[in-house]
Amino acid sequence: MTASHKTASFELLERLSRTPDDVASTLVGLTPCVQGAVVLATCNRFEAYVEMDEPVTAAGAIGVEAVLEAVESATGIPVADLDGAYQVHSGRRVAEHLFSVASGLESVVSGEGEIAGQVRRALKSARRDGTTSAELERLFQRASQAQRKVKNVTALGRAGRSLVRLALELADSRIADWAAERVLLVGTGAYAAVTLATLRERGAVNISVYSPSGRAEAFAAKYGIRPVPAEDYARTAARSSLLITCTTATEPVLGPEHLQSPAGAPAAAGCPVGAHSRLVVDLGMPRNVDPAIATVEGTALLDLETIRLHAPLEELQATDAARSVVREAADTFHVVGSRQSVTPSVVALRSHIFGLLETEIDRARARGDEDGKVEQALRHLAGVLLHAPTVRAHELAASGRADEFTAALSALYGVEPEIAGSAEDAATA
């Protein structure tokens, strides 16, 4: 199940971004049908990948019901609020969707690079919590491989831009000289590091950092900027001309009260001339900035919703090439998975034939096959007889007809494989 900027409102995505870490474990614990779950929650999407131990006709409905129940239980968001805000993929569509997501093809800005790391972290979280499964492991590992191939063989990564870069490009129209800006960065995570690097690319030099979680000094020491202690946060914010927030805080960390300059305080050095003397860029999800900050005189607010509205059109040529790579990777994933799914049946057939073979070899030896020629001939014959049905089994599996081979095996020899069916058909996103 997937809810993203393509299907859900910004407000709902903001609520879903507060999803607790225990959604996957809650999901796995709801019903024995759920064999594994990986949850991917980012600022612009919420996705649950679930492996179901159910017939393919029932897996989708049961999986979606379980996801909705887990989300409501963990977040308090009523199921009714999610109506019409999500899509469901199952079977062969799951791999292509996840590979597209990991490659940045489903992002606000096509080709943005942050999502690849978020996909990897989602799998690590599932491993840590014990909610992943063999098939989900294979799915997410192949997603990372597909993402790297897209990056290597297409121009999408170069054409696409991250949200951070896009936000600062939009800020360009308000900033005459980046070197003259007094910048306050609020946050010390991965987005903060990307933001800092992008600011420096544009020429910003007067940069301070504040951390609501108390990590400003370590971050500042690592990157050579000034840390802001908690007691100086409001004063520094009021004197800054560009404020960028990118924390994981669930409540706003910047509001109108922080921008009220103390009596007699000098104006922010380097403030650009124009309709607004201060620009606040909120890259947080949930929001890091109280929207009321836009009512403070001389202050303009740029948030993710506004950035999304200004996202450029996809670079069609690069995107088409990337989607071709994704489709090919998804096809390969399913062919390999299908062959793996028919393996128990092939093993059962070979075990049956070789059991008969050993019986006949024993008889031949009892009759005096001292030179082993009869045994050699029998083994060669068994190999020849097994070759065609083994090839046919893989062909049927690759076209989604593995069950036909299993049924034929049962009808002809009365042999049942220990494990039948394909786990990939039970995966629901």
Helix amount, in percent?
Answer: 40-55%
The outline comes out as elongated
Protein structure class: alpha/beta
Q: Say which CATH homologous superfamily of the largest domain is assigned.
A: Glutamyl-tRNA reductase, N-terminal domain
Strand content: 5-15%
**CATH level-1 class of the largest domain:** Alpha Beta
Mean pLDDT: 82
Q: Count the domains.
A: 3
Neighbour order of strands in the largest sheet: 6-5-4-7-8-9
Radius of gyration: 29 Å
Which sheet architecture does the biggest sheet show?
6 strands, parallel
Task: Give the total of beta strands.
Answer: 10
The fold-level CATH name of the largest domain is Beta Polymerase, domain 2
Count of DSSP H/I helices: 15
CATH architecture of the largest domain: 2-Layer Sandwich
* Measured distance between first and last alpha carbons: 4 Å
Contiguous runs where pLDDT drops below 50 for at least 5 residues: 263-275, 420-427
Order of H and E elements: EHHEEHHHHHHEHEHEHEEEHHHHE
